[in-house]
Hints:
This protein is of the alpha+beta class. It has one domain (2-66): 2-Layer Sandwich (YaeB-like fold). 25% of the residues lie in helices and 34% in strands. It is built from two helices and four strands. It is globular and about 30 Å long.
Amino acid sequence: MVKQYEKTLQILEVNPSHPSLRLHRLSGKLDNLHLVSINRQYRILLHFVIKNDLIIPVDVGSHDELY
């Protein structure tokens, strides 16, 4: 899992639009956050500020854990 997490962060840093990440902005109570996929089960919840090229991971967990 750690290797998949690290690989996901590397891809995110190089190409946030990479289709494997499935990067998308959330809505509702998490509307200021984005989500990327690590694999089918786990996601990374993050602050993603394109203006400053800033990516701040907030939490890692399954879909149900993060929502």
